[in-house]
Design goal:
α2 runs parallel beside α3. The longest helix has 13 residues. α3 links the parallel β3 and β4. The protein has a 5-stranded parallel β-sheet, with helices on both faces. It has a single domain, classed as Rossmann fold, CATH 3.40.50. By secondary structure, it is an alpha/beta fold. The protein contains 4 helices and 5 strands; from the N terminus they run βαβαβαββα.
């Protein structure tokens, strides 16, 4: 896990992806955009961080080796029901998001994506009223 710089005071994003290069790149990009970014490859570490930190948004891969993105999101929601989630995948894994049980405050973007698409999607999720649903 890489902690954010102390001068970053924007919303806090927890980035969960099993690929180190993806985490490093997205951490740098999101930090440059003013977000406080915590990163991990471990679902257990992600759950610990959600319990210990004020997290505004979780950005996680749909398909990971130890726990799928939707499974992790549901576990995170048991700790913090109001947290927003942005799923991402290099494959069209949107079908794995279980549309019969949509997650409030969740969205999906396909890798590769532009910084503009990423930041717009994050901003849209952070601006969703607490009763909104986006899948």
């Amino acid at each position: 896990m890489k902690p954010a710089s102390p001068e970053q005071s924007g919303p806090t994003i927890l980035l969960v992806d099993d690929e180190s290069a993806v985490r490093k790149m997205l951490t740098a990009l999101l930090s440059d955009c003013g977000y406080r970014v915590l990163e991990t490859a471990s679902p257990d570490e992600a759950l610990r961080l959600v319990a210990a930190e004020q997290i505004d948004l979780v950005v996680n891969d749909v398909q990971m080796p130890l726990m799928s993105g939707p499974q992790l999101a549901r576990a995170i929601r048991e700790i913090n029901p109001g947290i927003r989630v942005l799923f991402m995948s290099g494959n069209d894994r949107s079908a794995e998001l279980d549309t019969d049980q949509p997650l409030w405050g969740a969205a999906f973007i396909m890798k590769p994506f532009s910084l503009t698409v990423l930041t717009r999607t994050i901003r849209d999720l952070l601006d969703v009223p607490e009763t909104g649903i986006s899948t």
